[in-house]
Amino acid sequence: MAQSSFKAPSFTVSVRGLARYALVAVFVVVFAIFSAIAPAFLSGANLLSVLVNNFALLAIVAIAMTFAVAAGGIDLSVGTAIDFASFAFVSLVLAGQPIPLAILGGLVGASLVGLFNAILISGVGISPFLATLGTLFVGRSAQQLLTNGGNPVYLPPSSVPEAFRFLGHGGIAGIPVPFVVAFGVIAGAYLILSHTRFGRVVLATGIQASVVRYSGIALSRYTAATYVLVSAIAAVAGLIVTSTVTVYIPSSGNAFLLNAIGATFIGTTLDPHGRPNIPGTVLGVLLLSIVANGLLLSGLNFYWQQVATGLLIFSVLAIGFANRKAASRA
Amino acid sequence: MSVDAAYLSPSLPASIGNEADATPAPRGALGRRLAVLALRQGSLAVFIGVLVYFSIAAPFFLSVDNIGNVLGQSAIAGVLAIGLTVVIIAGGSNVVTGGIDLSLASNMGLSAAVYASLVQAGQGDAVAIICALGTGLLIGAVNAAAITLAGIVPLLATLAVMNVVAGLELVLTLNTVIPASTEFLATVSATGPFGIPVLAYLLLGFTALVAAVVQYTPLGLRLYAVGEFPEAARAAGLRVKLFISGAFLASGLCGGLAGILSVSYLSGSTTGAGDMLLPVVVTALLGTVFSRRLVPTIGGTLLATLFVSFLINGFQLLNISSTLVSGVQGLLILLVVSATTLLQRKGNQ
C-alpha cells in the first residue's frame, strides 16, 4: 500500500516532465519532417529568410502579447498599436522629419493606444478582453477617419531617406536589422520579466492579483504600465513593417493578432505551471514560422497550409492542457 | 418574468466579487438596483432615441420596406450572435477562461461553402441543408471535445478550430465565390407576407424559439447556473461539462444555420466570413445591457443586433460615412462595460 502510493507520484512526475517538453519535441519532429521532404528547407538562405521574414515580426508582437497574458490579461489591440505606430511614422517621414524623430513619434503614437487601454483597464476596471476589443474597434474607425476612409498612405521613393531603408533592409555585421531588433526585444523582455521588480509584479499579478494588492503594491499602476509597454513593444513591429514595405495600410496590424495569441499560449506549455514565458513564446513563434515556411516549400496546396497550421496549434495546445489537467489532478 | 429576473436577487453577484462583503447594506443594494434600472432603461431610451432621430431625419427610415430590410440583413449576424450568447451563458462572463466561440464566423463560412459546393455538384436542397447543419454541428462537437475532454481554454480551443475551419473553407472554395441558386434559397431570400423579407421572419422565429428554451425552461435556468456558479451547479448535481458541450454544439448549429442563410442572402458562398467574428462578439456582449440583471440574454442579443443594424442603416440613409460604425460599436461596448463595471464596484462598497 505504502509502496504503491510512493510509486504513483513519481510516475506522474515523469509523465509531466515528458509532456512539458512536448513543444520541444513537436518542434524537432516538424523540423526533421520538413528537412526530409523539402530539401530547400534546410539551406542557410532559407532558414535566414524564415528568421527575417516570418519570425522577427511575429516574435516582437508575440513578446508584447506575452506581457499582457503574463499579467493575467490579454491585448486584442496589439494590431491597433502597430497601425498607430506605422501611421505616425509614415506621416512624420512624409512631413520631412528626421528618422529618429519619426521613430519616436511612432512609439508615442502606439503608446497612446496603450494608455487608452490602461485607463480602461486599471482606471475604470474593465476586463482586458473587453477593453482592448473596444480599443480595436475605436482604433479601426479612427484610422479610417485619418485616412479618408481607409486609403493606404504610400511613401514615394523620393521621400524615403537612407536611414529609413536601413531599418527594413539593412544589416548590422551582416545580420539583417529586423532580426537584430527582434533579438534585442526578446533579450530585453526576458530581462525585464525575470530579473526586475516590474517583471516579478507582472507575473505575480497574473497568478494572484489580490495577493499583489494586499502586499501593498500599487497594482493599478503596474497594470497600466504593462499595457503601455505592450503597445510600445508592438509599435516596434509596426516600424519595421512600414520601413520594409514603405506603405501604411489602415488596420493591417490585426493580421498578427491571432498568431501572437497562439504563439504565447503554445509557449505556456513549456512552463511547468502553464505560465506565459519568453522562451516558450519564442519557441511558439519559431514553430509557427517554420511550419508556414516548410509547408510552402513542401509544395502542399497553399490552402491546406492553414489547415495544417491550425491542426498543429491544436495538437500542441491539447497536449499542453491535457498535461496540465493531469498535473492538477495528481 | 423570466429566468433572468427570478433566480437571483440583484445584490448577489456584487457580493460574489468580494467575499468580505457577504451582506451588502440593503441601501447599497437598492442604490445599485436603481442604477441598473437606469442603465437598462437608459440604453433602451438611447435605442429608441436613435430610432426616433433617424425617423425624423430620414423619413424613409420608418417605412415597412426599410425596417423589413434591416431585419433581413440582421438575420445572419443575429443567428451567430445568438449562438455566441448561448456559449457565453453556459461558460460564464470571463471571456478568456469562460464562454467564447471564436470559430463561429468561420464556421458560417465553411457551412456556406459546403452548401454551395453541394448545390454545384448537383445535390438537392435537402442534402445540402443536412450537410451544412452537420458541418456546423461537427465544428461544435470538436470545440466541445477540445474544451471538456482535453481541457483547453475555450478562447484557445476555438481559436485553433477557427484556423482549421477557415483553412478548410479555403481548400473547398479555393478562395473563390461559389454561386448557388435553388428554389429553396430563392424562397428564403424572397419577400414574404406584408413586404417583409423571409429572412426577417426567420430571425424573429429563431430568436423566439431559442429565447423560449433559454429563458423560460428549467434547461435554460440550469444553463445560467452552470455559467455563473459552476461550483454550485456541480454541487447541486448538474453535469457541468454536459451543459458546456451542449452549448458549443448549439453554437456550432447556429453557425451552420447562419451559413445556409448567407448562401441564400448572397446567392452563393463568399470569402471573408472571418470578418464577421469581432462584430458578432461585440454584439453578443452588448446584449447584456438590455437585460434586467445585466447578464447575457437571447432577447438582449437580438436587440443589440438590431440596434447595430439600424445604426448602420440610419448612417447610410443620412449619408454619414459608414467608417464611423465600427467606432460607434467600439465606444458603445466601452460605455456599456464601463457603466456595468462601475456599478458593480459601487455595489461592492
TrEMBL record, chain A:
It comes from the Bacteria. The keyword Nucleotide-binding does not apply. It comes from Rhizobium giardinii. CDD domains: TM_PBP1_transp_AraH_like (cd06579). The chain crosses the membrane at residues 21-42, 48-69, 166-193, 222-241, 303-322. This is Ribose transport system permease protein. Keywords: Cell inner membrane, Cell membrane, Membrane, Transmembrane, Transmembrane helix, Transport. PANTHER family: ABC TRANSPORTER PERMEASE PROTEIN YPHD-RELATED, ABC TRANSPORTER PERMEASE PROTEIN YPHD-RELATED-RELATED. GO terms for molecular function: transmembrane transporter activity. GO terms for cellular component: plasma membrane. It is a multi-pass membrane protein. It is found in: Cell membrane.
TrEMBL record, chain B:
It is found in: Cell membrane. Its main location: membrane. The keyword Phosphoprotein does not apply. It is a multi-pass membrane protein. It comes from the Bacteria. The chain crosses the membrane at residues 42-64, 70-90, 102-121, 127-149, 156-178, 198-221, 242-266, 272-290, 297-318, 324-343. Keywords: Cell inner membrane, Cell membrane, Membrane, Transmembrane, Transmembrane helix, Transport. InterPro entries: ABC_transp_permease (IPR001851). GO terms for molecular function: transmembrane transporter activity. One of its GO terms (cellular component) is plasma membrane. It holds the Pfam family BPD_transp_2. The keyword Transmembrane helix applies. PANTHER family: ABC TRANSPORTER PERMEASE PROTEIN YPHD-RELATED, ABC TRANSPORTER PERMEASE PROTEIN YPHD-RELATED-RELATED. This is Ribose transport system permease protein.
